[in-house]
Amino acid sequence: MSPELILINPWIYDFAAYDLWSKPLGLLYIAGYLKRCGYQVHLIDCLDVYHPGMKSPSQKPFPTRRVYGTGKFWRERTVKPLPFQAIPRTYSRYGISRQLFINELQKIQNPAAILLTSLMTYWYPGLKEAISLAKKIHPGVPVLAGGIYTRLCTEHAQRCLGADRIVTDLDLNNLGSLLDILKEYGVPLSKNEDVKNDLPYPAFDMLSHIDYICIATSIGCPYHCQYCASRYLNPSFIKRDPVHVLDEILYWHKDFGIQDIAFYDDALLVDSRNHVGLILEELIRGKVNIRFHTPNALHVKEISPEMATLLKRSGFRSIRLGLETSNIKEHDDLDHKLSEGDFERAVKNLQKAGFIKKDIGTYILMGLPGQSVESVAETISFVGRVGAVPYLAEYSPIPHTPLWDKACAYSPYDLESEPLFHNNTIFPCWDEEKKEKVPGLKKLAMEIRQSD
Ligand code: SF4
């Protein structure tokens, strides 16, 4: 019998969470890879909305699902951690019940290792709880934790998670190194060692239901925005072979009937002529009917008339543009990704290509250290005037980003030692006076979203 491995996508602990095409893509790649290597892989997705064990009549009503596969998660109110006691918001564990997670762990009799992923730094309580339960149910089995939080807050993860190993150097282009790590913990190599560095499709087929799939045509980003960790997490901008990406899209569409695909790229449209443009043209030629979504923003500068037409014709539905602020001086300080007139031009091109106002969502950063409320309000109004709809993105301070030191200096919270304080719901870098004006900003953005 080949060794059994448990892969876990842990719960989210937060004031709010929403499934906006959220899937643990890295973990699914690892699952696909380990399966191909011959291991028996068991995936426990704590955020599985469709888990059969959650559908019994005794459970709460099914979480509301919305268009294109997005929607709510299961949710259970829970006690707020001490640092949040003064925050007048309910705090919840999002995902399947604790008992169901325990049942899932108990089903696997003899795992050789347990691997967990992580995402936002302030969601670590879900990871910590999953590790603690895994260790209780499978004592002596090595537990390995990786993912974004462990890379951004390595020392914190080493100190507080209770994992046997914090894995910070795993590269999806070289997953053979994972086999070496497993070997260190006495997990025998599987039968198919020859596939060591060959990356298969992420194992969406191991999920209990597939509403949509996520895909990355590239890793990393050539920009270096002060508030973003993309450069730290992926120092190089690497594009996948467009032919392989196209094959992957067609595989999920034809074999699994997938209609909705979310791009996870940080820089989808950069060098589009030689990359994503080729993929989209091929999809148009083949009359492939898929709806594409861009939860990570598109670069405003890249929306030429030709690109806007290509996006429309190839089936993009939910466009999200990364504007952040309408103040060009602020762009000079923060990201250099926009010049005067770029946003207006991009929106015009999208409108000419057939997108209507509500299709053109625009992210606006709110809560940056030193940012004024007036600047956010002006940006919201600007987006409405230009003909797009504003979406406020609350700033979360991220370790290892250029803006981190400034965030720490502005924050009344101890961001360095407690990642819970990175939570954007508490606006860690804004004072009370500014926070009091947040409902007004949200109302303004909502009014523009709801207007014609
Ligand atoms: S914010 Fe966007 S454009 Fe800027 S570095 Fe991050 S991914 Fe790239």
Written overview of the protein:
The model has no long low-confidence stretch (mean pLDDT 95). α2 (98-107) crosses α3 (124-137), α9 (276-285) packs across α10 (305-314) and α13 (373-386) packs parallel to α16 (438-450). The chain is of the alpha/beta class. The chain folds into 2 domains: 4-195, Rossmann fold (3-Layer(aba) Sandwich), CATH 3.40.50.280; 212-450, Aldolase class I (TIM Barrel, Alpha-Beta Barrel), CATH 3.20.20.70. The chain has helices at 25-36, 98-107, 124-137, 148-152, 154-160, 176-184, 230-233, 242-256, 276-285, 305-314, 328-334, 342-353, 373-386, 404-410, 432-435, 438-450; strands spanning 4-9, 12-14, 40-45, 75-78, 91-94, 111-116, 143-145, 165-166, 213-215, 218-219, 238-239, 260-263, 291-293, 316-324, 360-366, 389-394. α10 (305-314) links the parallel β13 (291-293) and β14 (316-324). The structure holds iron/sulfur cluster.
In short:
With 452 residues, this protein is of the alpha/beta class.
Bound molecules: iron/sulfur cluster
Based on Cα principal axes, name the global outline: globular
Question: Helicity range of the residues?
Answer: 25-40%
Whole-number mean pLDDT: 95
Strand content: 15-25%
CATH topology of the largest domain: TIM Barrel
Order of neighbouring strands in the sheet with most strands: 9-12-13-14-15-16
Task: Identify the CATH homologous superfamily of the largest domain.
Answer: Aldolase class I
The parts where pLDDT drops under 50 for at least 5 residues are none
CATH architecture of the largest domain: Alpha-Beta Barrel
Helix tally equals 16
Number of strands: 16
Q: Report how far apart the termini are.
A: 62 Å
Give the total of domains.
Answer: 2
